[in-house]
Amino acid sequence: MKPLISFETLSKIYQMGETEVRAVDGITMTIMPGEFVAIVGQSGSGKSTCMNIIGCLDIPTSGKYYLEGHDVSELDDNELASIRNKRIGFIFQQYNLLPKLSVLGNVELPLLYAGLGKSERKQRATEAIEKVGLLDKINNLPSQLSGGQQQRVSVARALATSPSVILADEPTGALDSKTGEEVLNLLKKLHAEGNTVVLITHDNAIAAQAQRIIRLQDGHIVYNGLPEASLEVENEVKLI
Amino acid sequence: MTVFQSFQMALSNIMARKVRSLLTMLGIIIGVVSVIVIIGLGNGLEKYMVDSFQSMGTDLLTVNVMGRGSTRNITVDEMYAIVDNHPEYFKSVSPLVSIRGAVKIDSETYNSTSVTGTGEDYLAMKQYVLSQGRYVSYIDISRRHNVAVVGSYVSNTYFNGSALGKTLRINGKQFEIIGVLEADADEPEEGGTDDAIYIPYSVAAKLTGTNNISSYSFAMVSEDDVKASKQVIDDALFKVYADQDAYSIISLNELLSMMSSTIDIMISILAAIAGISLVVGGIGIMNIMLVSVSERTREIGIRKALGAKRHNIMQQFVIEAATTSAIGGLIGIGLGYALSSLAGKIIVIALDTQIDVAPSFSSAFGAFAISAGIGILFGYLPARKAAMLNPIDALRYE
Question: Which keywords does UniProt give here (chain B) (predicted)?
């Protein structure tokens, strides 16, 4: 089976005045279709940069990024936009719903940019909303929903385009533990249905829910394996 | 995403911020209203002048002979000869002798009534119509009969509508009324064209104490031959006086087109000045759109993350700017028409003159097109700024 996501000695270097910051430094890794992977790390570990590159919001400084076998490291703005639209489903910590649009309008948005007709947009958006169990709120504005519900809307929005990968950036970060767990269970359910889920978080307890953990530190991978062993590695690092 | 969807989105954004949108549009609204009212006023003024000139006859040439104080003067017969020799240019000619003096009817004296000595063709020349009797004839002129034709105002006001056969006195001489004209103006009034008396020019010349007739009116065959017709008369007069300052040939038609073009220039300048506020309005739109782009940075980031391309964002903001200013333009057109009809009514009350303030359709359409164009022009820069935003930075924007 071909990997869905593949980094080959990929680096992202930011120029901060005089100093060079190697946010991601020569990472090589793969994620297979149908996996549920958590990318964990403290702030500054390079996990956000990783997410931006996986999500095609940014391009690497060097190395290669293959998404479904296509090299996307050197695409321009509009080509990246088109890939984000078709292959990536974003879930953000702050939900990032448009406040003036209804639940339906928000979920339809990526389908609008995909150029779908009105009836097909509505049908696919409604299906996605049904999956997250918010059909009764379909015409509400985001401000009329609880945080957990808003995050479920953003899950529906990520699902609507049937993307290759669902990319969740601290999806529980703004939620209390109970609703956070609901959202995590939803992600697990999506994974069980065959979706590839990549979860970015700093929280080990949440990362532990994934199938595999990739731990980053200072732009390098320090652990890549099953969740149970990950904590030990962190403890070792702390001891050093 | 289609233009129509962008348009719907723009409309809902505009409606979501009503007060701000209205304030943004204000510059455009004021600009469009002033352009429309000024052009309407100009059209009304021009129409008013054309109408009043046309009622005087645009196919007429007026010749005034000042003379040079020399012994030789052009005679009435020589003037008639010009018409006889050039039937291709002229239909007729009439000497005109204005009499300054009092008209006395019974024992009352009237100063407002104009008295003019004319030839027998004057009636046809001015397209006046007789309601009773006949006009001054060739015999009246050659035999110097003391006969008069009166306007409808004179007949109706001073003779209770039955002036025919009655008499009146001009400078002490008694005249018999042989004809009454139909009303020329819609509402005959004192001092107007219907408050007039016409007598044979030979009699009038005698009354003024001079036999020199200094004013003539020529009726042209066609208004298009003004130049050639004037040349013919000029040649004849120059032969006598050898001095172009000794006479003048005035064409009402030429005068009219001269005044029309003067008004046109005036209106264009005024409209251009009013148009400056359209530009100011455009800058106002640009300003608000720039603010709006800053405010909606996060929204732009979300849209880009979800797959909006540069041109999608660009299109959204340009269309929003264009829609804002186009709506402003439409409001301006509505207000402009309302204000124009109000201005027309005020002019009637204040100046007692009927000037229709008539905004032309083309000026309304032009104002609309210009305001929409200004929206696109001034919306471009903010839209470009929005389109170039980096999605990562935009998503982090608080």
Answer: Cell membrane, Membrane, Transmembrane, Transmembrane helix
Q: Is the Cβ–Cβ distance between A16 and A10 less than 8 Å?
A: no
CB contact under 8 A, B13 and A100: yes
For residue A117, is pLDDT > 80?
A: yes
Res. A110: pLDDT tops 90? yes
Distance CA A237, CA B86 (A): 119
- As a whole number of angstroms, the distance between CA A226 and CA A238 comes to 19
**B108 token code pair:** 């009352």
Q: What is the pLDDT of residue A232?
A: 60
C-alpha count within 13 angstroms, C-beta hemisphere, residue B244 = 5
Q: Which amino acid belongs to residue B209?
A: G
The CA–CA distances, whole Å, from B329 to A217, B119, B202, B268, B377 equal 59, 58, 64, 19, 15
| pLDDT surpassing 70 at residue A240 | no
Closest residue, chain A, to B392 (C-alpha): A57
Nearest CA in chain B to A159: B306
Q: What angle do CA B338, B343, B346 make, to 5 degrees?
A: 130
Of A58, A96, A115, the CB nearest to B302: A96
Most B CBs within 10 A among A94, A108, A112, hence the mutation to make, goes to A112
The CB-side HSE value for A28 (13 A sphere, CA atoms) comes to 2
CB pair distance less than 8 Å for B391 and A57: yes
Phi, psi of A98 (to 5 degrees): -85, 120
Q: Which residues of chain B fall short of a pLDDT of 50?
A: none
Residue A8, pLDDT above cutoff 90:
yes
For B313, the closest chain A residue by CA position comes to A113
CB-CB neighbors (< 8 A) of A161 in chain B: 307
Choose, out of A58, A87, A96, the residue to mutate when testing the contact with B (most B CBs < 10 Å).
A96
Is the pLDDT at A50 greater than 70, yes or no? yes
Q: Based on the number of CB atoms within 10 Å of its own CB, is A15 exposed (0-12), middle (13-18) or buried (19 or more)?
A: exposed
Average of pLDDT values for A193-198? 94
* Pairing assessment for the beta strands A88-91 and A36-40 based on DSSP bridges: unpaired
Amino acid symbol at B352: D
Q: Choose between B397 and A35: higher pLDDT.
A: A35
Predicted pLDDT of residue A234: 58
Tell me: the pLDDT tens digits for B263-322? 889 888 988 888 888 888 888 889 989 998 999 999 999 999 999 999 999 999 999 999
- The reply to whether residue A55 touches residue B308, judged by beta carbons under 8 angstroms, is no
Task: Decide: helix, strand or coil at residue B297.
Answer: helix
- CA–CA separation, A97 vs A101, rounded Å? 8
In three-state secondary structure terms, B59 is coil
Task: Specify the pTM.
Answer: 0.72
Contact A128, B322 (CB under 8 A): no
Q: Which residue blocks in chain B are alpha helix, DSSP H?
A: 3-16, 18-54, 76-85, 122-125, 138-143, 152-158, 201-208, 226-241, 252-295, 297-305, 310-351, 361-387, 391-396
**Measuring CA to CA, which residue among A151, A170, A160, A171 is closest to residue A97?**
A151
Across the interface, do A109 and B306 touch by the CB < 8 Å criterion?
A: yes
Predicted local confidence at residue B380, as pLDDT: 92
| Cα separation, B383 vs B98, whole angstroms | 72
Is B353 an 8 Å CB contact of chain A? no
Which ranges constitute the DSSP H helices of B144-251? 152-158, 201-208, 226-241
Look at strands A62-67 and A220-225 and give their pairing: unpaired
Give the per-residue pLDDT at A120.
94
Chain B: give the shortest CA distance to residue A238, in Å. Answer: 30
Q: What is the pLDDT of residue B69?
A: 67
Tokens matching residue B266: 């005036």
